[in-house]
Design goal:
Blueprint (H helix, E strand, L loop, with lengths): L7 H22 L6 H14 L3 E5 L2 H11 L7 E5 L5 H9 L2 E5 L10 H10 L3 E5 L8 H8 L6 E4 L7 E2 L2 E2 L6 E5 L13 E5 L2 H10 L22 H10 L3 H18 L5 E2 L13 E5 L2 H10 L28 H7 L2 E4 L7 H13 L6
Parallel strand pairs: 2-3, 2-4, 4-5, 5-8
Antiparallel strand pairs: 1-9, 6-7, 8-9, 10-11, 11-12
Helix pairs in contact: 1-8, 2-8, 3-4, 3-7, 5-6, 9-12
Bound molecules: pyridoxal-5'-phosphate.
The site of pyridoxal-5'-phosphate has 14 residues, from α3.
Length: 368
Amino acid sequence: MRIPFNDLKRHFEATRELVAPAVERVMQSGWYVLGREGASFEESFASYCGARACVGLASGTDALELALRAVGVAAGSRVATVANAGFYTSTALLAIGATPVFVDVDRSTYLMDLHALSRTVAEGVDAVVVTHLYGRLCDMDGLRQVVGPRRLPIIEDCAQAHGAARGGRKAGAFGDAAAFSFYPTKNLGAVGDGGALVTNDPDIADKVRLLRQYGWNPKYHVTMRGARNSRLDEMQAAVLLAKLPYLDHWNARRREIAERYANGVRNPLVQTPALCGGEAVAHLYVIACESRDSLREHLAVADVMTEIHYPVLDCNQAALANTGEWPALPVSEWLSDRVLTLPCFPELTNEEVDFVIARINEWRPCTP
Ligand SMILES: *Cc1c(COP(=O)(O)O)cnc(C)c1O
């Protein structure tokens, strides 16, 4: 049995009857960019998130960058973020000329540590980007309390958290603005790149509508700097619109898989993440293990594919070398040597999950 890390062909087979007519409809319409499908998806996704507005964009990274620009982040701004979330926020900040100010994470949730954040906020930042990493919602009430009195803009990175909810409120409806990605492997995935900004603030939505289309207002009259071409095309919008009604169902299956791992993995050397019901949508199932590379090798030999999210902290990336002193991030460093992501996608079978569990439970690291 070979167990892939993800298998988008299975996902296509499972969604063929939804996706194929949507693609055909767009092809026949003769209208491919910023049309009815996009508008309809924006309305549906905003309503799904419980937010006032959604603006379709070309990618999640663009959504982060344009959200930052729309809340006033500019060259020289300092923005608090974590260093263990794959550099996407750092990419957006570098594009603007802003500086990431890295905040350490919590050892059990892997999410931004609010005590560390409150120290960073006291030192002075202009905005906060909070990443709902691996599909787990951050403590947004706690975060509001830390930054609230200073009225700092909060941007949620929801690229791994479509549908995660707490108290009936969904990821994307807590911050001033939220960035979503529809990269094919995300919980809601397109058949190519795609992204969106979600917000309750009509001014932010209006700004991003200009930023995504050359700064035009109206057409051919450029009224805003920092703009670009970043549009969610009609094909992707139609596919996403067709798939959206099934997002909760797929998230439930992801949670089922996470639960199966949590109940099945019984190896004293492996730490499984805490389950937290609907607050997590199991985008990635990430364990922590002292001898991570040995376990990964053992699984690879058994034909179980795994990944590391992420192998290099943002502050240790070559792209940021010689750009200054970064603060010590002991927990982020500790985790980045230990995290390992197991296969977790809706079409994975219970039999396959059990196979992975058995391989983990039989593993012992070779003694040197
Ligand atoms: C995927 C991802 C992004 C970037 O989305 P793209 O659509 O690939 O640009 C941003 N943040 C996180 C946490 C992600 O997982």
